[in-house]
Amino acid sequence: MKIYFGVFALLFATTGCSQNENRETEVSNKAVVEETSVSATSDTLCYERYSGNRNQDTASIALVINDNTVTGSYENIPYQKDARKGTLSGIRSGDIIKGIWRFQQEGMNDSIPFEFKLDKEDLLQKPTSFDVTTGRETLADTASFSLKFTKIDCKAVNPRIR
Questions:
Q1: For a disulfide at 149, which of 47, 66, 137, 155, Cβ 3.0-4.6 Å?
Q2: What residue numbers bound the domain in which 18 lies?
Q3: What is the CA radius of gyration of the chain?
Q4: Distance (Å, rounded) from C-alpha 112 to C-alpha 97?
Q5: Longest dimension (CA), the chain
Q6: What are residue 107's phi and psi, to 5 degrees?
C-alpha cells in the first residue's frame, strides 16, 4: 500500500511541475511579445505654453503615444492661482488626440475632456468653456484649436510630469 501511495505522489508531483513550466514559458513569451510591440511604436513628446500679461502662466504637457493609445501628464500653473496637475488618457486618430484630463485642484479631484491636434513641432488644443447650467467645463465640437503649445526637449520638462 505504501508503494502505491509513493508512486502516486511521485506521478502527481512530476505532472504538476510540467504544467507549471509550460505556464511560466507561456507567460514569459507573452511578456516578451508585449514588450516588443510597445517599444516598437512608442513615442514621448513634450510641450510647453506660456501665457498671461507677463508670460507667467505655465502649462506643460508630456504625451506618451503607443499606437493609438495616448497617456501622459498635464500641469497648468497660472501665476499666483491654484494649479491643476494631473494625468491624460486618450485615443489618437491621425493627428487628433481626444481624451480625459484627470487632475487635482485645491485638493479636489476633477476631470474635463480635451482635444489636441499634432501640428509639426506644435501641439494645438481646443479650449474648454464654462457651462453655467451644469457648473462644469465643457468642450464644444465647434471650438477651434486656438491654444498653441511649443515642442520642447522632454529633459527640460519637470520630472514629475514625464
A1: 47
A2: 1-40
A3: 25
A4: 14
A5: 92
A6: 75, 0
Residue type (1 letter), 88: L
Instruction: With beta carbons less than 8 A apart as the criterion, state whether 74 and 101 touch.
Output: yes
In this structure, the answer to whether residues 147 and 70 fall within a common structural domain is yes
- How confident is the model over 38-96, as pLDDT tens digits? 344 689 999 999 998 899 999 999 999 999 999 999 999 999 899 999 999 999 999 99
Q: Residues 36, 48: one domain? A: no
Long-range contacts from 123-127, C-beta under 8 angstroms, 24+ separation? 123/45, 123/47, 123/61, 123/63, 123/148, 123/149, 123/151, 124/148, 124/149, 125/149
Task: Please state, in angstroms and rounded to a whole number, the distance separating the CA atoms of residues 143 and 130.
Answer: 13
Helix (H, G, I), strand (E, B) or coil at 13: helix
> Identity (one letter) of the amino acid at 132?
V
Total domains in the fold of the chain: 2
Placement of cell 506521478 in the chain: 11
